[in-house]
Amino acid sequence: MTQLYAVRMDVALPPDMDPAARADLLAREKAYSQDWQRSGHWPHIWRCVGQYANLSIFAVDSNEQLHEILWGLPLFPYMSITVTPLSAHPSDIAQDPAQ
């Protein structure tokens, strides 16, 4: 059974990070996240306007799978992450077959 999570990721890279190392890190992060997006396990990602942060929705098989995905992020050591489990809301018209 697929479990949904809202995950906020705030990034704080060191200001003195070597530009080449930063570029490599960001390229690896982009490739890694896009692979998970293509798999269907990371169906949504939004930028938080004015911040180095994103809000993403994950559709995973287990807590362990989400943990594995997040720990595998190349930017993980520079992130503060907040995970919120989600469930369907009874007022959501998309969940109501009568709508």
UniProtKB/TrEMBL annotation:
InterPro entries: Dimeric_a/b-barrel, MLI_dom, Muconolactone_d_Isoase. The keyword Isomerase applies. One of its GO terms (molecular function) is muconolactone delta-isomerase activity. It catalyses: (S)-muconolactone = (4,5-dihydro-5-oxofuran-2-yl)-acetate. Its EC number is 5.3.3.4. It comes from the Bacteria. Residues 4-92 form the Muconolactone isomerase domain. Keywords: Aromatic hydrocarbons catabolism, Isomerase. Belongs to the muconolactone Delta-isomerase family. Homodecamer. This is Muconolactone Delta-isomerase. It comes from Blastococcus deserti.
